[in-house]
């Protein structure tokens, strides 16, 4: 009998740690990694996780991190899809505001030449 995976949080945390990175914070469907360098978002499909890089992260490191996450994901039957960027800022009421920026609007994949 095949086991149905409902929430890949444990698997994602193991993948991140096997890369030598640290899960900084996990909340609901979001996993913040390496002091917010990127966020992994779990969706309705437990076989897929969305990847968003912090807009302030090192552009040159993004392609190699995305490739390594994708490779580790494939080894564990998990598809990692690069979706774009995110920004995190403190709102006036002391809460954090998380904004996702789609990849086509962000131009986040490759360093500029």
Helix-strand sequence:
HEEEEHEEH
State which percent range the strand residues make up.
Answer: 35-45%
Number of helices: 3
- Structural class based on helices, strands and sheet pairing: alpha+beta
Number of domains: 1
What structural keywords apply?
alpha+beta, 6-stranded mixed sheet, 35% strand
Description:
The chain contains three helices and six strands; from the N terminus they run H-E-E-E-E-H-E-E-H. By secondary structure, it is of the alpha+beta class. The protein has one domain. It has a six-stranded mixed beta sheet. The C terminus is likely disordered.
Write a brief caption for the model.
The protein is of the alpha+beta class.
In terms of topology, how is this protein built?
Blueprint: H1 9-18, E1 23-27, E2 30-33, E3 38-42, E4 48-54, H2 62-75, E5 79-90, E6 96-102, H3 103-106
Parallel strand pairs: 4-5
Antiparallel strand pairs: 1-2, 2-3, 3-4, 5-6
